[in-house]
């Protein structure tokens, strides 16, 4: 009987940890729910507001910066077209034909024709310089344009100068421009019509040397010589224009095939 009474108080001692775990379990569950819900809601709501407001500002700042080089791109598209090169060829052909066909042209008329030819060619070369991709080619084209324009102004400024002075101006322009164009044709990379451009440069150099070095027996012979060289230069530039058109068509066909 004594043993049964000694073991009986141990029986109620065993379930005593049970109620202690129940409040402990309840204590662990109740704080977890507010801790998990309260920080999540402000964290999800606050970041999207600044993220949505920041991107539009740089987009408006970059728009005017891209609109600045539009004139240069427009000149580049115009100067790189084969029609512009053909127009430059006509600027040489028409004065050459006028000089040869007009039998009784005076010195004043000859000076005006040569001056207009030099100014028109300078304008064509200036625009064509923007169609070059490399900086060296563009600089060479600008130098050639700057060479033609002052020479045209000199011819128009004093139309009553002698035929020798006119031939000296045109000869120097042809010689120097031919050397510059020849240099650009040799140095330029990926030039599809390199042979034609080189041929035009060589013709210009020969024209300048002939006009400057070989003495003409009379003013009429020298005038006819200027007209013949103008026609020859115009025909060679027309060939370059047709070759450039063929190169552009091949590039367009390759782009469509890809």
Provide a quick synopsis of the model.
The chain is mainly α and 258 residues long.
Question: Secondary-structure map with pairings?
Answer:
Layout: H1 2-7, H2 10-13, H3 17-37, H4 40-45, H5 48-53, H6 56-66, H7 70-79, H8 82-101, H9 107-129, H10 135-157, H11 163-187, H12 194-213, H13 219-257
Helix pairs in contact: 7-9, 8-9, 8-13, 9-10, 10-11, 11-12, 12-13
Structural features, described:
- The protein has 258 residues and is mainly α.
- The chain is 83% helix and 0% strand.
- The protein has 13 helices and no strands.
- It has helices spanning 2-7, 10-13, 17-37, 40-45, 48-53, 56-66, 70-79, 82-101, 107-129, 135-157, 163-187, 194-213, 219-257.
- Helix 7 crosses helix 9, helix 8 (82-101) packs antiparallel against helix 9 and helix 10 (135-157) packs antiparallel against helix 11.
- The longest helix is centred in the last third of the chain and has 39 residues, at 219-257.
- 24% of the residues are buried.
- The model is unreliable at 1-68 (pLDDT under 50).
List keywords for this structure.
83% helix, disordered N terminus, elongated, mainly alpha, 258 residues
